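Morning run. Coffee first, then this:
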Amino acid sequence: MSHVLAIDLGTGGPKVALVAFGGEIVVAESEPVETQLGPGGAVEQRPRDWWSAIVRCARRLAAARPDAVAEVVAVAVTGQWAGTVATAADGEPLAPALTWLDSRGAPHARRVVAGGPRIAGYGAVKLARWVRLTGGAPSLSGRDPLGHILYLKAERPDVYEATATFLEPVDWLNLRLTGRCSASFDTATMHWVTDTRRPAAVDYDERLLRMAGIPREKLPELRPSASVVGPLTPSAAAELGLGEHVRVVTATPDTMSAAVGSGAVGDQAAHLYVGTSSWLSCHVPYKKTDPFHTIASLPAALPGRYLVSCEQQTAGACLARLRDEWLAGTAEARSGYDELTALAAKAPPGSGGVLFMPWLNGERTPVDDHLARGGWLGLALETSRAQLVRSVLEGVALNARWMQQAVERFCKRRLDPVTFIGGGACSPLWCQIFADVLGRGIRAAADPVHANVRGAALLAGLALGELRVEEIPQRVPIAATYVPDDATRATYDELFAQLVKAYRATKPIYHRPNGRTEASA
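And here it is:
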């Protein structure tokens, strides 16, 4: 059976897997990469670190399964979206990559989108054009390539002038693999300068380029989603231990590959992802935008389709922060996530009234507020560690319920059941909490942490003509199903109401001039 080398460039580092066209994860490796935090909302990574980590992973895969590596016919890249690599003419990065968490472009993005009269911070005429053509609009938080490019243009003019092409991280990896500088219809969306009204024929729009202040020559050529970019370069093939005949397919944002890797590819078939961040999404046949809640249907990785795009900034990151920082020095900090969630199971639903607000790095859906910050409410002398841990699991789920309300209004239907993927789906307790909080059936996909690489491989199968879209659901087995427990409904209804009130009550604190901060609270 032929295989795909699938690369998922996560925020914490790449996962690299050998995946059969049938969706089976044969073997996978991962490597961490360092993230540099700086003043003013800087969150950067070094592209060379990505490539070095990928090569190390690929070599370990080759040592573990040389038989499967010999059958690799394609490389498929997915990963973090809305980042920016300023690339020189020779393909080398000119500076560290600005990740999707980097908000230094906020003041520059706000100036570009301003104009009177205003709607939700945007000039009404500009907003109408962006929404009509792209399906969305530049983020007021600056956390997208347009904000990044505007930041470099204003504050790093040396880098901006020397840049031949601004690329998404996954598109930079494809350049490193093939020597060809390009973007797919779906990866290019977050630049907000493409006309997406025909998802099978996306192209740059001159009016949008002028509004954004970005010259066309600094952006890559566009290719259809799920298509072949070209073969590996000899140097890339040698480093990865693959043959030069291996073809590289268009890269895909993690949200798009996860949707495919969940198996939920039918219209209105919903999936929930919980990793560092989280989202609730589904494919739809229409282009639509809700700018007030930061939701839009954008070109999907499946050719000719749209995917509902939304995001909550920190989900699994909250649990990681709890273990690695807030419980530092304790036995819980030295344990794995299974032990941590086992501790949470000792606390009853509702965590004794302790409410965790998960906005550690701002928020996007249903409120676009990069100044929002998190914390606990209801702590008392008798609050236990079990209650603290469970409150984090519940707080993330309650925040997802806030997103769920906006997404279901957007889709004009109840999304039930929901396929659960990402690291959060590994925890039976968290699966049940999500079922109870959302009031929806939860279908935990098998091998959920590898949904992205599975999706990338399945898309490679589409690109090479080895697979049809309607065959995808049967390639993703479901490990377990969870139904809502009616006994918890009143508890979670009350906590959810408190969460929304907590955001509205704390917003003035973080938005006042002397309360502005880019550091997590």
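The longest helix spans residues 385-411. Good start to the day.
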